[in-house]
Write a structure and sequence with these properties.
- This protein is of the alpha/beta class.
- It has a domain of about 90 residues: Nucleotidyltransferase, domain 5 (2-Layer Sandwich).
- The protein is built from 3 helices and 7 strands; from the N terminus they run αββββαβαββ.
- A 5-stranded mixed sheet has the order 4-3-2-5-6. Strands 1-7 form a two-stranded parallel ribbon.
- The relative contact order is 0.17.
Length: about 140
Amino acid sequence: MRFFIRKRRQTPTVIIVALIDVLIVLLIFLMVTTTFRQQPALRLALPESEHAQRPGASEAAPLVVWIDEKGALWLGHETRPVTAERLKQELIARAQKDPGLKLAISADRNAPFGQVIKVMDAAKAAGIKSVNAFTKERQERVGQ
């Protein structure tokens, strides 16, 4: 005689709907908290200027040449390394495609000044009429 009836155990299941809800909430959280601002790949200590313009003040974005503190040259927003001769060739090719090309030099405060002159010479050889330098706004010091 059997007095106890054994109940069949249900196999454990995972509730997929609840997992999908949790994943959607996580995805929304990550999308809201992520910044989509384009960060430059190089960290430069820019010199200060009293007449510095805010970024985005000009209509067309200029072609940027970066010079780090060691004197290495980097071209464009993709910041690919170039030599001085290759930079000159690139500037000539781009100036032929776009005669109104604007060039901006973003040199580190400690960058060799000779490299800045090489970039300016390459721009002149390419026929680029507008060459600017990036600076940062002067910070008012406390006590002055």
